[in-house]
């Protein structure tokens, strides 16, 4: 599944983040494939580090700013920085705004890294890359139809909500636009924006399980085949904290995208799922 | 003591005996940008918060406590630790108060002031994450989970899920590491933990 060489390939710096680099490597692999098929060249940020995450944010402001800032210092000028994890996106953008407003802190950090920090860099979510440059490429490059796939778009909480970043893009509806263009059918009326529990899933599963169950129940009641998330941590939490008998497969957005664009090695990703998605995929193949 | 005569009073200097301390809401506003004084207790934040049942005060009650200047109650409460920063409240507040940012500020204040933490297992977890970040520059879930379970003793609570994740290799055995990890360790120098 490769696009004819040389056709307006576009370069982006890419920040994978800890989840996609390890626990959710299937999201990363599928993202890479989807991007390649569409002619987007995602160049991994050399020697990137954790964006800071909620933990650094909670314990020390300087630390979380410093961690995000180091990543910005590694990003070459001249191309946007793309993140797939909504939280990483949020922390990287917040750090950029913070450094813009505090030149002194910026100078200190630049001195300690021995590199300039690019505070004018554009930081965007992969979804935005798609919407901006990819919608027409999508229909041209689609290899498999998603016709008949009823999905709940699950945005979770972070992708567009933080008021501190309200000047940035609002993503509501974009996942549906992309997947509908590929033939899938979006199911409204489910809990698409309810938070997945974030770190409470690790510390207090008993708080998170009933909430996750409600999300899954709402999707099942709406007769969806699956939920499609924009965040790898949401995907994991929805899978591991569902304690009901009703189980719906949870896909990361990039998996479904890569599938539609003709990826061959999807079995490799799907066996890593805790709720087996293969019956849904088989149904889809039969319908085609 | 008898009242000073008019002549005496004229020569007395004005002495400030008590200056009202800076209101708590001002302090929190400075750190978070949240305009706490605007709240009129509509309770949209408390009704919308997905985690409210696990909290001791609802988010709107925390706002109220702040308005009353009840520092200790706020900094020691469970709510600020249960809050995951999902911004549901902030997006619903009709007065445009960024409650999630306010919670961020309160957690930092609780940590900095060294008060008793309202929900200690959560700060233990964040500490484990930071240990992993300090060492690797990236989060290593397996060592975080092991360290966390060791601290909190919750070994059996979640064994099922842990094993499933291991079987699917969702918990990587080895961490992914930053090469220039010294640059990360340097960032930890500012961290309050050092002074302990
Ligand atoms: S940001 Fe915190 S207080 Fe607000 S809704 Fe989310 S968990 Fe509740
Ligand atoms: S939503 Fe806003 S105005 Fe309403 S109770 Fe909460 S903080 Fe106050």
What tags apply to this protein structure?
heterodimer; A: 288 residues; alpha/beta; Glutathione S-transferase Yfyf (Class Pi), Chain A, domain 2; Rossmann fold; 4-stranded parallel β-sheet; 14 helices; 11% strand; globular; disordered N terminus; B: 196 residues; mainly alpha; Fumarate Reductase Iron-sulfur Protein, Chain B, domain 2; 2 domains; 12 helices; 53% helix; binds iron/sulfur cluster
Q: How does the SSE layout of this entry go?
A:
The complex is a heterodimer of chains A (288) and B (196).
Chain A: E1 10-15, H1 17-21, H2 25-38, E2 40-44, H3 53-59, H4 61-74, E3 81-83, H5 86-101, H6 103-113, E4 123-125, H7 126-141, E5 150-154, H8 174-181, E6 185-186, H9 200-203, H10 205-221, E7 226-229, H11 232-240, E8 250-252, H12 253-260, H13 266-270, H14 278-287
Parallel strand pairs in A: 1-2, 1-3, 3-4, 5-6, 5-7, 7-8
Helix pairs in contact in A: 2-12, 3-4, 4-5, 4-6, 7-8
Chain B: H1 6-11, H2 24-32, H3 44-48, H4 59-67, H5 71-75, H6 79-82, H7 88-92, H8 99-113, H9 120-136, H10 141-152, H11 159-167, H12 181-187
Helix pairs in contact in B: 2-8, 9-10
The structure holds iron/sulfur cluster (2 copies).
One iron/sulfur cluster (SF4) binds at residues 39-45, 60, 63, 92-95, 97, 99 of chain B.
Walk me through this protein's architecture:
- The complex is a heterodimer of chains A (288) and B (196).
- With 288 residues, chain A is an alpha/beta fold.
- Chain A folds into two domains: 2-124, Glutathione S-transferase Yfyf (Class Pi), Chain A, domain 2; 144-287, Rossmann fold, CATH 3.40.50.
- Helix content of chain A is 50%, strand content 11%.
- Chain A is built from 14 helices and eight strands.
- With 196 residues, chain B is an all-alpha fold.
- Chain B folds into two domains: 22-112, Alpha-helical ferredoxin (Fumarate Reductase Iron-sulfur Protein, Chain B, domain 2, Orthogonal Bundle), CATH 1.10.1060.10; 122-194, no CATH class.
- Helices cover 53% and strands 0% of the residues of chain B.
- Chain B is built from twelve helices and no strands.
- Chain B has helices at residues 6-11, 24-32, 44-48, 59-67, 71-75, 79-82, 88-92, 99-113, 120-136, 141-152, 159-167, 181-187.
- In chain B, helix 2 packs across helix 8 (99-113) and helix 9 (120-136) runs antiparallel to helix 10 (141-152).
- The longest helix of chain B has 17 residues, at 120-136.
- Chain B is globular.
- At the A-B interface, helix 1, helix 3, helix 4, helix 9 and helix 10 of A face helix 7, helix 8, helix 9, helix 10 and helix 11 of B.
